[in-house]
TrEMBL record:
Domain G-protein coupled receptors family 1 profile: 27-310
Glycoprotein in keyword set: yes
One cellular-component annotation, GO: plasma membrane
Bilayer disposition of the protein: Multi-pass membrane protein
Protein known as: G-protein coupled bile acid receptor 1
Highest taxon in the source lineage: Eukaryota
Length: 343
């Protein structure tokens, strides 16, 4: 790749990811502090959500480095592994935590009276280990030999004497020939297995649980509306009651919010994954294109926004920080008023 073109793409990644990464980091810290300051939120469901926030925070920190994984760099084998394995581990742990949070809330809705008896609540340390250890083990497979790394030619020679002399005199120059690329670290089988065996099932499970929850909510709404209609018939009212209309409006708003969240947060990431798989199958140099860089930044960034939507929508998570901000604002206004009076 042309150095000027590489520099322009690095600038594009910087301008796209740094603002989004800053928003993700500070928003997660805002919600984490809110949960830590409210003792009423110290329970198992919020511990799962806190684990998701920590994973999302780490994803926000590594977000500027994830799109750079498509660019070739001059690094040795150890640094190249760290550059690719660590962001991949954090993203997979974030995805596993997201599935666990949806699964725990799904159990609470499906079985509201018996959800505390499920293994997720009874074996919380085991559930927490499941969302962190498997991503670490899978992301570390290239470090245990599942990679396409090829040693530089300076290390390989048919003559043993030439090999010894070259290895002692030109070891530093040979490191400059080592090209660090995702193709060298991640084999195609590894990428296919991650996408089709981990990422895609996780996304489908989240969508299935959300659909099931919406279906349960719709059935309960229909039952409540039937009771209201029966009461209205006894009262000889032909028009639907105001409460029934409010319930229908709330359900419509819920459906609109879920649909908008799916379009904003999931669709860019799905397009990014489809572009990645298509590039692997056809052999096209798509990862070097500007469109692919934009989709990778927006796709992964939009996925990281999902916990923020869940957290900021809950007033219990934001109430402690909101009180502190309100006190600071009142003090600042009070100080300004005192200055005006003295003047």
């Amino acid at each position: 790749m042309d150095p000027f073109e590489k520099l322009s793409r690095e600038k594009l990644i910087f301008y796209l990811t740094v603002p989004l990464s800053s928003i993700i980091i500070f928003s997660n810290l805002f919600i984490i502090i809110g949960i830590a300051c409210n003792r009423q939120l110290h329970n198992t469901p919020n511990y799962f959500f806190l684990s998701l926030l920590v994973a999302d925070l780490c994803t926000g920190i590594t977000l500027p480095f994830i799109p750079r994984m498509t660019l070739d760099r001059q690094l040795d084998f150890k640094h190249c592994l760290v550059m690719y394995i660590f962001p991949n581990f954090l993203f997979l742990s974030f995805l596993f935590n997201l599935v666990m949070v949806h699964y725990e809330r799904y159990l609470c809705i499906v079985s509201p009276l018996h959800h505390s008896q499920f293994w997720v609540h009874r074996c919380f340390p085991l559930a927490l280990l499941i969302v962190w250890l498997p991503p670490l083990l899978y992301a570390s497979l290239p470090a245990f030999g599942w990679n396409n790394w090829v040693e530089p030619s300076a290390y390989k020679s048919s003559d043993s004497n030439e090999t010894f002399l070259r290895s002692t005199t030109s070891r530093n120059s040979s490191k400059e020939d080592e090209v660090c690329s995702y193709k060298e670290v991640f084999p195609k089988a590894f990428i296919y297995l991650e996408v089709c065996g981990l990422v895609l099932p996780a996304m489908l499970s989240i969508v299935a649980m959300m659909g099931r929850v919406l279906w349960i909510a719709r059935k309960q709404l229909q039952n409540i509306c039937k009771l209201h209609r029966a009461v209205d018939r006894l009262q000889q009212q032909q028009k639907p009651s105001d409460h029934e209309q409010q319930l229908n409006m709330r359900y419509a708003k819920c459906m609109a919010a879920v649909s908008l969240t799916f379009l904003v947060c999931w669709v860019p990431y799905i397009i990014y994954q489809l572009m990645s798989v298509t590039a692997l199958q056809t052999g096209v140099s798509l990862p070097n294109s500007t469109l692919y860089i934009i989709m990778s930044c927006t796709g992964i960034g939009s996925m990281a926004v999902i916990p923020l939507i869940l957290g900021l929508a809950n007033k219990q998570y934001t109430e402690p920080i909101s009180r502190v901000m309100l006190k600071l604002r009142n003090r600042w206004r009070g100080g300004q008023n005192n200055r005006d009076i003295t003047l």
